[in-house]
Design a protein that fits this description.
The complex is a heterodimer. By secondary structure, chain A is mainly beta. Chain A has no helices and 11 strands. In chain A, strands 2, 4, 5, 6, 9, 10 and 11 form a 7-stranded mixed sheet that branches. Classes of the chains: A mainly beta, B mainly beta. At the A-B interface, strand 5 of A face strand 4 and strand 5 of B.
Chain lengths: 123, 107
Amino acid sequence: VQLVQSGGGLVKPGGSLRLSCEASGFTFSSYSMTWVRQAPGKGLEWVSSISGSGSHISYSDSVKGRFTIARDNPKKSLFLHVNSLRGDDTAVYYCARGGTGGAVGRNNWFDSWGQGTLVTVSS
Amino acid sequence: DIQMTQSPSSLSASVGDRVTITCRASESIGFYLNWYQQKPGKAPNLLIYTASTLHSGVPSRFSGSGSETDFTLNISSLQPEDFATYSCQQSYSIPFTFGGGTKVEIK
């Protein structure tokens, strides 16, 4: 199992980015996927999850309406479109594999993680 | 939202010590509590899921217990590679909240 992330970087307040996560080594469509972030020196924060089929999506209140999670199962890729960025969005963003069966449910412990990508929001 | 509170926030221990970290949920989460280890500059690694199930490849010196609102992560004999930050996470309901983390440092 491998998750390789790309995207991220320095962006001005109000700006946008697309984060990507390419999966290999497992049946991608059989698993829910999640984005988790970690602000500098802070704890982990759940951001968003998407079911294996892409039909069920959830967001934290802090990003709802600004971030969009998506997946492309044939390409085994997960995305996070981040818009209207603010200073408190500055963090390392991780993609993570959730539960088997593909649902965003109670078996959503995260057993594989990407390497993380830093998003810095600053003017 | 379910709040997850870990204690202590940090601790100092020696190699060979037994270490206990606690995690309390603001409401009952059954046994849907997961533990992660994170080293500086690295992604977290899953240690334990559903309160007490050891993830594949995790050494048996790690164990978890608890249910409902009170949970414990134990390290029976601390090894040099165990100095890290440990975080709990509830998967009972969305949003999937994490505890604030416990940093285990060398005494």
